[in-house]
Amino acid sequence: MSRDSTWFSYDAATQRLTLTLHVQHNARKNEIVGLHGDALKVKIAAPAADNKANARLVDFLGGLLGVPKSAITIRHGATGRRKVVEVARGEWLAERLVALLTGRLTNHDSRITPSP
Question: Where does the pLDDT of residue 103 fall: very low under 50, low under 70, confident under 90, or very high at 90 and above?
Answer without folding.
Answer: low
